[in-house]
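Subject: sequence -> structure tokens, single chain

Hey, anyone have a minute? Need the predicted structure for the following. Not urgent.
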Amino acid sequence: MTISSNDLFTLASIGFVQLLAVISPGPSFLITARTAVARSRRDGVKVALGLGTGTIVWAGAAIFGFNALFHAMPALFMAMKIAGALFLLWIAYQIFVHARVPLELGNLEEGGSPYTKGILVQLGNPKVAVFFGSIFFAMLPANPPLWLLIALLVIFTFNEV
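Reply:
Had a minute. Here:
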């Protein structure tokens, strides 16, 4: 196994871009903060671990499936980008239209595992799928070494948790 400087640069670049995406507030941040404040720090950590697990699923699908599929069918990638952009515009419109409506957080003491909630939030967030599909298509070389793909999964999971 040879490790080139290009591979290390790719690893660092993709890891950094994903870290920037993770630190921007979104559903992951909200459910983690809400759970930690309303229930306990321990439950907040469980949610974070669930989010990390969901990240493994999305990133794994993107690395081992989407990347190959999008390289084989560029039109599908373009359709996914357009659908993702339209979805983000819809979210922005909904935020704008409902800006004055109070936010309903629901019952904070509802049952269910915080870990499971974290997984479901991550798997139910289409921005994550669009992000991983886009970033891998745009930044990964055509035939990346297996170690690089595994290292990206580890970095993404660490960043998310």
